[in-house]
């Protein structure tokens, strides 16, 4: 077993363990992915990664963070995604869509304008969350129980469109301080109803959505969830790795096939906590304690480093984000470094 061993989840087989981690490009108009996304995602498929993940893709306009994020709440968006999916498939790679709602972290300006709150007259909207807890200087409105039910429907509708566009897998983005995380972490969730209070209540929105999405996508399609395994906060209400283990067991029982163990989202993580493999212990602990397949992510930048995580049984997939921006051919370069045979795109064979 190594970085280039295939992995089968349900009826999906990935040719290797290297994943292009979701990365927002802030380059869309009306939620529609364009040429940039085709080249960005397609280029990394040419580069040999087994699974290409889209950036976080909003299930509704209110689920965007900025007006430059991508979405999949209408057919125009779906058709644009299909073009990208087809190209990735032509490269013998698989592609997954990360579905997402920003909750209280929405209605922001573009990063080039420092992601300041977007005023209503420039297209901004009222952001809503589990509770009116301040996030980045904004106090969201509290979602009603009816609105929570409507949100689950949005995720189901978006999943249908992703399946129709030809995606091989779906990942729910339940980390990084976005809407699902705003429910399961007591740092934000201060509700007193069935969606707040106990851990069981706080994870309810995610678990119910997982159940409904699972039932609405083909049985052979794996369902992935990205969580923040910890909040990286010391307060008594912070989400912990022990909480993540409980959550992972329940997600597994509800048909989730793989959990990517990321972290944080409500506060800047201090620099001394970020170092190579810094989140691998989350992945390996969740994997050992629950038996679910896991993805490791965070400061994994080298072939030998990534290979060791697989060889040591610490994760099933390696999600590589920033190194893929520096090197779209990370997978092909890794195979060469590890002296493993892989298929090179025929157009490029003369160079490898
Ligand atoms: C430009 C950029 C955009 C990102 N966008 C997303 C995203 O859309 N969804 C997500 O789950 N994580 C996102 N992330 C986080 C990465 O997927 C990854 O978890 C993080 O960068 C750590 O991995 P790395 O050290 O390999 O970069 C983004 C990271 C970067 C650098």
TrEMBL record:
Coiled coil: none annotated. This is NADH:flavin oxidoreductase/NADH oxidase. Keywords: Flavoprotein, FMN, NADP, Oxidoreductase. Gene3D superfamilies: Aldolase class I. The lineage of its organism: Bacteria, Pseudomonadati, Bacteroidota, Flavobacteriia, Flavobacteriales. Transmembrane segments: none annotated. It comes from the Bacteria. Residues 105-133 are annotated as: Disordered. Its cofactor is FMN. Residues 110-123 have a biased composition (Basic and acidic residues). Pfam families: Oxidored_FMN (PF00724). The keyword Membrane does not apply.
């Amino acid at each position: 077993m190594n970085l280039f061993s295939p992995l089968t989840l349900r009826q999906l087989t990935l040719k290797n363990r290297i994943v292009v981690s979701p990365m927002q490009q802030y380059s869309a108009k009306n939620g529609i992915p364009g040429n940039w996304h085709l080249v960005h995602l397609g280029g990394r498929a040419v580069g040999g990664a087994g699974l290409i993940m889209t950036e976080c893709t909003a299930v509704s306009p209110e689920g965007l963070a900025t007006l430059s994020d991508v979405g999949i709440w209408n057919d125009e968006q779906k058709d644009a995604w299909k073009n990208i999916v087809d190209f990735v498939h032509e490269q013998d790679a698989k592609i997954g869509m990360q579905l997402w709602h920003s909750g209280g972290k929405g209605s922001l300006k573009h990063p080039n304008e420092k992601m300041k709150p977007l005023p209503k007259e420039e297209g901004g909207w009222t952001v809503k969350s589990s509770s009116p807890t301040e996030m980045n200087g904004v106090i969201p409105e509290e979602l009603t129980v009816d609105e929570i039910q409507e949100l689950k429907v949005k995720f189901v509708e978006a999943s249908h469109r992703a399946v129709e566009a030809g995606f091989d897998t779906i990942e729910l983005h339940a980390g990084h301080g976005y809407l699902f995380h705003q429910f399961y972490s007591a740092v934000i969730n201060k509700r007193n109803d069935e969606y707040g209070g106990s851990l069981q209540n706080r994870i309810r929105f995610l678990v119910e959505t997982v159940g409904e999405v699972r039932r609405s996508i083909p049985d052979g399609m794996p369902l992935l969830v990205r969580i923040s395994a910890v909040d990286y906060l010391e307060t008594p209400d912070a989400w912990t790795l022990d909480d993540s283990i409980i959550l992972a067991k329940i997600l597994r029982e509800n048909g989730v096939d793989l959990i990517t163990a990321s972290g944080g989202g409500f506060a800047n993580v201090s620099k001394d906590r970020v170092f190579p493999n810094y989140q691998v212990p989350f992945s390996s602990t969740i994997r050992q304690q629950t038996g679910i397949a896991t993805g490791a992510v965070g400061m994994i930048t080298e072939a030998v480093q990534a290979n060791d995580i697989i060889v040591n049984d610490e994760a099933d997939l390696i999600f590589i984000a920033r190194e893929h921006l520096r090197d779209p051919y990370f997978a092909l370069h890794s195979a060469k470094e590890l002296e493993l045979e892989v298929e090179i795109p025929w157009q490029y064979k003369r160079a490898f």
